[in-house]
Fold these 4 entries.
Entry 1:
Amino acid sequence: MKPITITDENFETEVLKSDLPVLIDFWAEWCGPCRIIAPIVEELSAVYEGKAKIGKLDVDNNQETAIKYGVRSIPTLLIFKDGKVKDTIIGAVPKNQIVNKLETAL
């Protein structure tokens, strides 16, 4: 399963109203570190299928949401639960760091 594409338009439905915890990767095409963690995000979307939603939000095309949540550097991963930010991960970090924070939100 691939990560879902999150946009300014579907953010409320896919993230804020989600019954499952949601991990969003705020990224951009031109961002080198974003490309480093992209395979990890893809892998997690398969591993956590049915337990959490994994999504990607392109900050160049969805600036409203990025600005609303104060995303200033990318990649930034935000973990939402019950419509609120539960955790933030900034930068290309090891997979186990992402997994540990996601596990605490489940």
Note: Helices lie at 11-16, 32-47, 63-68, 95-105.
Entry 2:
Amino acid sequence: MPSLRLAGLDGIVGLHLGIGHSLLVLKLEPQLKPLGLTAKQVTILWLAEANPEITQIEISRFLGIERATIHQFTKSLVRNGMIAIEPSRSDRRATRIHITDKGLSALDQARAIIARHETEATAMLSPIERRLLLDLLTKIHAGA
């Protein structure tokens, strides 16, 4: 493929974030597929383990994804027995998510896959560069 003229696109942070995200997910998703999980579902399990009684609304806000989309992800996790959902005691409109033993087992396996994937994906970075990248991305996320 011939080299493309980028005409300023090379300086667009959002473009590089989007391409990087797409490439990372493209490589990760097939590795998670045998577990019956997507990257977003793993994130939901991870957050549910770390934050007992987290709500779908909190997950939606954190990920910047519409609540209806989170509902679809959680519906699949419930169907597969990885999470349980119950009404919140403080807000009847909200639902709390609890990770099940099956969900914990799947999450442990997913974490191992993600650790290998992260090592491969950032192999060209020094530990300092990797930390800097994480710090900068976290700063962008916090400011959004």
Note: The radius of gyration is 18 Å.
Entry 3:
Amino acid sequence: MTVQSTKLEYLPSDLKKELLPKHVAVIMDGNGRWAIGRGLPRIMGHKQGVNILKDLLRCCQDWGIKALTVYAFSTENWGRPKEEVEFLMTLFGGVLRQELGEMLQENVKISFVGNLQALPNALQSEISRSMEETKHNRGIYFNVATNYGGREEILQACRAIAKKVDQGIIQPSEIDQAIFEHHLYTAPNCDPDLIIRTSGEMRLSNFLLWQLAYSEIYFTETLWPDFDRSEFKKALSAYQQRERRFGKV
């Protein structure tokens, strides 16, 4: 994967390997503002954001983080200008075609979560191909939330379980967290340990509402196209200072 950032092979000495999150989720916010602040079209922010994402994925691989989930396109993003939405759909497909070979070489397993049937047919084909060709890879799990909404994910899980109850496959008394999670888009991935949101916004924006119940949250003013490895290291350092009790003393 071709990137602009400097590749650092090893975990920085002031980060503790045993305290790294196993799964990091990211709300990549601020592409448009980054471009406008430089007098550029909004689409240039998205292009730079892709470069940052590629380096973050490689950084997670280098530093021993097992899974990365990113919020690429929400169910609410369809409300953006038509030209921007069309550009994003084209960009997603182009990146998949361009990067699939290197993802195979670097042992990346990619999956897409969300209502994928609503995406353009050409993009659906690229998504299916990338998931099929990388399904046996075990280097890092790379999950891309596309046309994703947390509330809709919960609703579709409820509908799927209700259908099985109606068919007699599941008894209501058998429904527990494990069964519910099995019907989420993100199954069978583990929940994120750390979620990062860039650009200074402090909300989840309908992202992984079930899965983030006990995730550590890190907000930064840095716009996504400026979120390089040094910024990621700050997020990991903050994470390692926290005590995770999961409701216990």
Note: The helical segments are 31-36, 42-63, 82-105, 121-134, 150-166, 177-182, 229-240.
Entry 4:
Amino acid sequence: MSMNCLEFRRAIAVQPRQLDAAARAHRDGCPRCAEAYAKAMSFESLLDRSLAVEVPATLADQILLRQTTLDRQHNSGRRALVWRMAAGVALAVGVVGMSWLALGPQQTLAAMSVAHLSHEPMALTTQGTLPGVEVSRTFEQLGVHLRHTPVPISYLQICPLGLRRALHMVVQSPQGAVTVMYVPDAETTRRDFSERGVLGRELQVGKGVLVMLASSRDAFDGIEQGFRAAL
């Protein structure tokens, strides 16, 4: 049974490492979906590296030594509390490590969006307009409902942005290509910025954050209005 592009994108969004024969056949015959598959596997590799945080080798010994000492001094209720604290320390080490690997020195959504541009430079040259049904369904994968397509979108992918997942779009405006990132379930304060020579705008739209990046801000107002009307 043959598979179309939309069905393939759904498959790699759920289990990119376990594609069936139809999905593999579609990937091998569709350059655009092969590219999307490569990006999905890159994201999976990023998650693997983030989860493979090495806990200090002496942490377990330190916890056991502390527990042995307390066992001699306190009752069983106190011992249970210490074990919960030890588990919390181990979890905190893992979370801090994951955050550092994912975010590095980047702290804001705007900064991470600018950094992400270097990962997908070909997106800026993508031409044409994606079908509205494909745009809506991709947004729905991240729980975002669109009333209608906000603006003509030539490129759309779900991409990692730090520890979040974002909708990475490109809009071809008369003033040039504009990269648009929408991050669901995030909050920010409206601001215009310049980051690494890129002009941008970050603002709250609906229940998420919209980030626009370009060499000029001329198209930002129109794109912002389109997303406010659609979300």
Note: Residues 89-106 have pLDDT under 50 and may be disordered.
